[in-house]
Amino acid sequence: MSLNPIRLKVHANYTPFSPLYPSITTNNFSTSAIHRNKSNTSPATTTTTTTVSTPTKSEINAPLSTFPAEIETPPQLPQNAPATDKIKRLVATGRAYVTFYKTGLKNVFRNYRASLPLRKSLGLPTYLPVSPPRANGAAGAGAGTGDLGLGRGQYQLVRRSARDVRRMIPFTLILLICGEFTPLIIPIFGSAITPATCRVPGQINKERETASKRKVLALTGYQQQQQQQQKGVTGSQTHQEIEVLVKFAEKEFVESANMQEILRASAVFGLVKNHTRPLAGVPGFAGMYRRGLKRHVEYLGIDDGMIRKGGVRGLSSKEVRFALEERGLGDVGSFAPSGKVEGVERETLEKWLDLRK
Asked: Which ranges form a coiled coil (predicted)?
């Protein structure tokens, strides 16, 4: 089998899959391209109001307040600037981050408050931030809104606000203790305790790069496994990456896959940090990983149906990127020429939906 050049420098010698867009793939690509496409990947600017409006059933986008606000940091100083000026800028930068974090925490509260009517309609507890229930039969590829009775904007608001509230307490404690030094502490914990509204651009870009590398390693292992199982089989074994990810999102795959395949699919979707988990062979943990992947697949089935109903064109550019990241495709725009990132991302999401029918 002919192997195409991988899209990451650290893995330049191998790749198991054909790139989704071969014409824009380059051997010299680095995930730092994400930074070059900053206008398409920077967090959304949050609203300045003190309340968040609950989306109507026809709205496909979640409120902007579910994304991080912009950080207004002091301008850069020349290298020969006095030490006192550098210290002042450092302190001002720390305060800007604290303001950013406080805004993010306020938005967590506002989003959750806006979601309360929707939570009540779903029969969810008001003060316990559990995620929305999964609709019956939603794990199928063509699943829609099921029995939830919500529009996508409403569903995402309930889901994201519950997720952020669960991270709010530990993050707030760190912010109170560390103050201006919080940006130095947060990378240690990553997104595990950081609400989405409090993730700084550097953290977001680093997580995207890490997710891309993790996916490459997981898919490489999966392809090698497939080759071993198909020795002697004639014909092409080259697959497009998106086709394999769609397979990982099928209910039948989750039910029949072995533990190695479960871990690789989980790594691709960002459910685990890597596809080599020593505890996977311990009784009890194997079922935990399979259940986690099953829940994510069921969620993707619901979200696919909602996006299909509203149309990819109705999604904002930030929502398109968010949807791709949840499907293991958050790095596709990094291979696109400047000015064509959003078009490539929308085309990729549309192709995902077509393959999921």
From this structure: none
